[in-house]
């Protein structure tokens, strides 16, 4: 039955409820600039009123309330906005990583600057043109040799820089693997804490904010799926599962039966007991959870792979693993150990191939760098094949028809010294160099040291025999200079292409010099390089355009989320005044009841 003491309790409950509301408002204000913080609000509800009317409880004017209480402290959060932001963040992450590395590739290629490959190639052909008009002068031949050295040096340097950039992108990929595995562990720990707090009947708002912030960070690396479970627990999976049957990275229940990622640090050709390479077999070294700080994490497996599969693994490098970091089969079982005699099939390696995020960006840019390296190798090979063919008068790399190749494979070139102290290629050394001509790349192409030591050996005349005519007519030098405008099928070159495979249309020109003829579907050397640079520019522009679009889109979503979940100081101050007045009013109720009780108790004495 209601009375003054009941009224006193109502005032007390009101003060308590307003005080908690003030505490929540203070917490919001204190965290107004805290990253990932979600605005909270106190839900104030009426307490249970006195019992319903019954036989023993006569109907009066109506139910009398008993006060107010804070039923919950809620986070103000829109899950759909979280989904949109994380999805778009993942896409932005892909192109931010790509833009970063493609910008560096552009810087390496130097475009059309004075020191670019295109400019140096033009200077080489110009020097051959000059030699054709003064074929008997040693200075003109020296200029050809030196300009060619400058070109091969730039090819070598560009190749090396691209390889270093690829290694850097792989290091970045390794760092991302370590980072995401750490985030999984942090989310799992928060997941368990949140569940325990919810079971106890409280709201783990700040813990959920920390978990959401980690999920936002994780979405930069790859796109994620979040399944909500009981007591605010979550199961976390990547959107892209590949062949793995159970891809849970975090679980609210059975949280030890989860997956992780490991990083492949090396892919080497396997060798037998005699040290000979085994065709189609590789030794793959990976580190559990990507942690390369300890050899105890190092794992080695032997795998049968084609060249294309090895390239795919080289560009990807992230393996699905169990909770201990050991690479797994599709059914989740560990790969176990292998030997040279019992290699795994490539299909046993389960690569993590996300469709978006920083990890995807790092993987895709490695494929791009490999493509640019291949195209650079094509230029080096085409240059060596065409110049060597015209210089020797033969489209076959054979010691019987080419006694002085102009460009050689620097990895295999071994020289002897003549009586004048100059380097020479003879006998087996010459055959070895010519046999390895098909293995020329931008990384190993160089000018024959025999020519560098004695540039007068450069063949400039129609006959090519300096001892007979002293290079009087310069027609061979002219034919080499004209290679600048020859249409050749550079795009058809691969790692196994030889000079005879590449130059199939080889015949005498008007001056009687054997030279390369135009191909209907070919392109010039300089044109091919410019196409490579233009493609690179387009890729860079595409990345910049997507980043700009994604930034605008994300800003819109983030503003929407901030309007829902962010702390507005003005709004919180208004709430604070509101709760303050309510608190004071409840205090006035208590003061009034106190005066009434004084009348009832002390006034009866009079």
UniProtKB/TrEMBL annotation:
NCBIfam families: flgK_ends (TIGR02492). Belongs to the flagella basal body rod proteins family. One of its GO terms (biological process) is bacterial-type flagellum assembly. GO terms for molecular function: structural molecule activity. One of its GO terms (cellular component) is extracellular region. This is Flagellar hook-associated protein 1. It comes from the Bacteria.
């Amino acid at each position: 039955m209601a009375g003054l003491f009941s009224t006193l309790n109502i005032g007390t409950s009101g003060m308590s409820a307003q005080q908690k509301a003030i505490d929540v408002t203070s917490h919001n204000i204190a965290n107004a600039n805290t990253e990932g913080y979600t605005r909270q609000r106190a839900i104030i509800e009426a307490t249970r009123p006195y019992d319903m009317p019954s036989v023993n409880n006569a109907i009066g004017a109506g139910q009398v309330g008993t006060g107010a209480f804070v039923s919950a402290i809620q986070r103000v959060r829109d899950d759909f906005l979280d989904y949109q932001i994380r999805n778009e963040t993942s896409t932005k992450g892909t192109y931010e990583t790509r833009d970063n590395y493609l910008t560096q590739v552009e810087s390496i290629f130097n475009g059309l600057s004075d020191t670019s490959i295109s400019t140096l190639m033009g200077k080489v052909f110009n020097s051959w043109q000059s030699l054709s008009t003064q074929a008997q002068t040693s200075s003109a031949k020296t200029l050809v040799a030196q300009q060619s050295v400058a070109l091969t040096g730039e090819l070598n340097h560009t190749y090396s820089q691209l390889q270093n950039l690829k290694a850097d992108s792989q290091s970045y990929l390794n760092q991302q693997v370590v980072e995401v595995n750490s985030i999984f562990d942090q989310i799992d720990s928060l997941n368990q804490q949140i569940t325990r707090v919810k079971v106890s009947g409280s709201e783990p708002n700040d813990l959920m904010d920390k978990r959401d912030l980690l999920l936002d960070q994780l979405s930069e690396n790859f796109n994620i799926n979040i399944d909500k479970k009981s007591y605010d627990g979550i199961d976390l999976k990547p959107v892209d599962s590949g062949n793995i049957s159970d891809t849970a990275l975090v679980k609210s229940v059975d949280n030890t039966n989860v997956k992780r990622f490991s990083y492949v640090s090396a892919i080497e050709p396997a060798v037998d007991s005699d040290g000979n390479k085994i065709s189609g077999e590789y030794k793959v070294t990976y580190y559990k959870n990507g942690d390369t700080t300890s050899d105890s994490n190092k794992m080695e497996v032997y795998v049968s792979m084609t060249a294309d599969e090895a390239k795919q693994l080289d560009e990807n490098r992230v393996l699905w693993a169990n909770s201990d970091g050991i690479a797994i089969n599709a059914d989740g079982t560990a790969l176990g150990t292998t030997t040279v005699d019992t290699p795994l099939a490539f299909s046993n390696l389960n690569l993590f191939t996300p469709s978006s995020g920083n990890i995807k960006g790092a993987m895709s840019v490695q494929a791009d760098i490999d493509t640019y390296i291949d195209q650079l190798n094509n230029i080096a090979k085409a240059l060596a094949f065409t110049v060597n063919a015209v210089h020797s008068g033969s489209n076959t790399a054979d010691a019987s028809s080419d006694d002085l190749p102009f460009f050689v494979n620097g990895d295999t070139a071994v020289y002897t010294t003549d009586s004048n102290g100059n380097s020479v290629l003879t006998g087996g050394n010459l055959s070895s160099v010519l046999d390895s001509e098909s293995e020329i790349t931008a990384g190993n192409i160089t000018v024959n040291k025999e020519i560098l030591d004695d540039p007068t050996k450069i063949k400039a005349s129609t006959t090519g025999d300096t001892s007979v005519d002293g290079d009087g007519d310069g027609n061979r030098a002219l034919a080499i200079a004209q290679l600048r405008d020859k249409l050749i099928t550079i795009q058809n070159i691969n790692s196994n292409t030889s000079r005879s495979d590449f130059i199939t249309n080889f015949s005498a020109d008007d001056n009687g010099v054997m030279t390369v003829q135009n191909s209907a579907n070919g392109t010039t050397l300089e044109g091919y390089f410019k196409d490579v640079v233009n493609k690179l520019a387009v890729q860079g522009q595409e990345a910049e355009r997507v980043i700009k679009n994604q930034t605008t889109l994300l800003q819109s979503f983030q503003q929407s989320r901030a309007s829902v979940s962010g702390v507005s100081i003005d709004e919180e101050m208004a709430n604070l005044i509101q709760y303050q007045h309510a608190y004071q009013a409840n205090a006035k109720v208590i003061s009034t009841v106190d005066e009434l009780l004084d009348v009832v108790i002390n006034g009866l004495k009079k």
